[in-house]
Known about the structure:
Layout: H1 4-7, H2 21-24, E1 27-31, E2 34-39, H3 43-52, E3 55-58, E4 63-68, H4 72-79, E5 92-98, E6 104-111, E7 118-121, H5 126-135, E8 143-146, E9 151-157, H6 161-169, E10 178-183, E11 186-195, E12 198-206, H7 210-218, H8 221-224, E13 227-228, H9 231-241, H10 275-283, E14 289-297, E15 308-311, E16 314-322, E17 330-338, E18 347-352, E19 355-362
Parallel strand pairs: 3-13
Antiparallel strand pairs: 1-2, 3-9, 4-7, 4-8, 5-6, 6-7, 9-12, 10-11, 11-12, 14-17, 14-19, 15-16, 15-18, 16-17, 18-19
Amino acid sequence: MAFLFLDTMIEQSDFSLIELHRTQxxxxxxxxxxxxxxxxxxxxxxFDAACSRVALIDRSWVGKIALxxxxxxxxxxxxxxxxxxxxxxxxxxxxxxLTEKGRIIDYVHVLVARTSPFLxxxxxxxxxxxxxxxxxxxxxxxxxxRQTSNFSLLTLVGPLALAAAEMxxxxxxxxxxxxxxxxxxxxxxxxxxxEFSTSLVDILIGAQDATAVWNYIMxxxxxxxxxPMGSRAYEAFRVSRGLPAVGAELSENFNPFEVGLQDxxxxxxxxxxxxxxxxxxxxxxxxxxxxxxxxxxxxxxxxPSGAVVLHDEEEIGVVTSVSEAVIRGKRLxxxxxxxxxxxxxxxxxxxxxxxxxxxxxxxxxxxx
Length: 368
């Protein structure tokens, strides 16, 4: 069965998350550039579901770009860190686009097809990705087409995500390979992957079918134990797992090793943009920084992104992401710190404009 985005065009529509959320969610506010549900119930319950069971979140804010042309997969292979040419059609491959200096432009997931690969990219980063690809398109037969508004993306996240998806859709889901499912009311493409100590099942559907598929999944809430999750709990969960985000960990301030993206790098493929820098860092063990989780008491001043981290009066790094949600009296943050400067449970100070905060260093995943 051919999935619809490979064969047909959907009429362009204004991008929004599922309208159903406006009646189910307790409140709606901007997240990743769109209006998104803040929460459906207790933030702690939603966070716990993602950590110990399964949660469902609408991540339609994720950017989507289709590439067209006979050279599209080959060009993407030459621009990014992973080996796309060894993948088979239908595989889902994570890869990183880098500057010439080996710094991060974006972390993307490629749905492999020979003449029409489909990219899941960071929210709000579509313009930059399209410009980057077009910059290196010279004589190649390659054309980009933005599809963010045409497709919705629902995600089951948590240790029981795979079991829940296989029960709901009555199928077997191989890891890192797309599975097409025909429902009576919609065509869906399901992508199961495991990364950053997390199981995720992405459900890609035409935007016009999103509400129907959301309702279909929610009808299985009792037997699967799934919990709908809003952006507040999702952000806390993302930070607790060290999942990198654009503008925070995914930026030209860092290389892939420093934010935990080494699994998206092939060390046996040929040249790509930034490859010489990445090879030197790996060969000569020159990586200077690594990601850590920080746990702060809720009554500590909330540090902003970019706040300096000190340990024994030495400046050892910066905060990159902070979750405002309070989970069991704690808030969570991601910091990129100098290697071998801290151990688990070390106490550090974070210097922000609101004052000095104290935090405890934790390896990922951070459990509170």
